[in-house]
Amino acid sequence: MKKMSRYLLLILFMFSANWAFSQKANFEIKEGHFLLDGKPFTIHSGEMHYPRVPPAYWKHRLQMMKAMGLNTVTTYVFWNYHEESPSQWNFSGEKDLRKFIKTAQEVGLYVIIRPGPYVCAEWEFGGYPWWLQKNKNLEIRRNNKAFLDACEKYINQLAKQIVPLQITNGGPVILVQAENEFGSYVAQRNEIPLEEHRKYSHKIKDMLLKAGISVPLFTSDGSSLFKGGAIDGALPTANGEGDIDVLKKSVNEYHNGLGPYMVAEYYPGWLDHWAEPFVRVSTEDVVKQTEVYIKNGISFNYYMIHGGTNFGFTSGANYDKDHDIQPDLTSYDYDAPINEAGWATPKYNALREVFQKISKEPLAEVPKPAKVIIIPEIKFSKIRSLFDITDHQKPIINDQPLSFEDLNIGHGYVVYRRKFDQDLKGKLEIKGLRDYANVYINGIWKGELNRMNKKYDLNLSLKRGDRLEVLVENMGRINYGANIVHNLKGIISPVTINGADISGNWEMLPLPFDVFPKSVYQSKNITDHSPVILEAEFSLSETGDTFLDMRKFGKGIVFINGKNLGRYWSKVGPQQTLYVPGVWLKKGKNRIQIFEQLFEKTTSVNSIDHPILDELIK
Fold this sequence. Notes:
It is a single chain. By secondary structure, this protein is an alpha+beta fold. 22% of the residues lie in helices and 27% in strands. The strands form nine sheets. An eight-stranded parallel barrel has the order 4-5-8-9-10-11-12-13, surrounded by four helices. A six-stranded antiparallel sheet has the order 18-29-19-25-22-23, with no helix packed on it. Strands 17-30-35-32-33 form a five-stranded antiparallel sheet. β14 and β15 (323-327) form a beta hairpin. α2 (58-68) runs parallel beside α4, α5 (145-162) runs parallel beside α7 and α10 (283-295) packs parallel to α11 (346-358). The longest helix has 20 residues, at 2-21.
């Protein structure tokens, strides 16, 4: 009887706690503090982006955060994730932002929304829809009418989702960001007057307010970049600042000498590119910095607490002086405390101990991870050259190659094809390659071009009647830096041989891979390095998370049961596996489809029980 009474009391306590959490409340910035219903509140947040995690796992990941001792979850909203085509908005199903916010509330977490419109985040085009570039009167991230009109449409759509869930309406949303890391962009685009930059950023703030955002606004910049990034009426917060004195001095300068003081992005890990080492941040350093923030009463947000996965074609890219593009991995593991598959890492456990010390109550138990399975060898019974498909596809013909945008596709691949009526020998040069290409003559591979390594030319010998095919891949649009305004894909300038333009009768065959192409598979010898599609069915007696081992493959994408798992590039690494969420598998029959750009007679695949993210191929 006593046990039953205690059980009933626990149920009543949990019910009353959740009831109280869902009531209308007030969150404000006053006299240098965050105040929750008039009482000082310190934000201990972790960032997780709902598009990078299957919805069936949202609650688990949020419970992981709560069990670590956090009180808030932060998420970006990606404009291009919800506007699927011009004026076609989707906030349902796996894109149900309201459901994510409500799930956080059920778990007992407050929510911070970072809507951009620019988000960075190692996400395709920093969150912008690719077709904005088709409007020649539009320049992104600038005081430009066409761009601002598009931003306002997005913000108004977004507001419909989050305004009813602000804390003043009984929801968990306590803060909303205005723009994002704009101080960096001001520094990168110093040819634009600061006054014009500020007109733009303040118009974004005004749009948010007009759309009904009533919780406090904030900005997020490096502490040395507040001059360009700060917005009147929004709390300036610092990214990556570990020095408390510098943090307070920077905020005070742009916030009337008062706090609250917040690090909106503290990095317990870091981003990763193809062909570069996987970056790790030590547990000791993360614990030490966390303790500094707690000791000094600093609010902070771990970017990322859980990274998830860049499924499909959602990963973005950077660039530097040595690389014209640095494409991001499919995995967004980020060396975060909760890894890509939702497992607690040693870093997570160490931080949980820190938060347990400051918690008045025992923290909730850490949720168990999803079951992991191993899929034995799957043999591909269906293999076909991609060129057998494109040979039956009606081409688009133009004198010069057309960009992806001109072809009205945002992602995937395009075959650029041309037949020659004379002999030519010399250097093929495609300076406008965006981003990666394999070159074929009469279906025989001749070499690779790669914007990442600044390799834009190849020596060729063409005979009269030969057919040149250039298979171009969009590796993800740049999401950070001044070059974000130069983000067309495909071949964006004339192709030359020995310096002479090759014009006339270019054929283009778009392959967006929004769905995997249907094909009648035929037995046929396929030469090495040909682009191929492979398909097989496999049966499972149980489902669970797993990791496809792609080490025998070259470069391509994988679909399982119609879901695009993302890109692999095993020839360079460091990522060698693709995460397969168990919720995307089925008991019984399943289908796997692979587009492999560099076929080398590999005709089977299997999965393993752990990720391989740090195997760089030199």
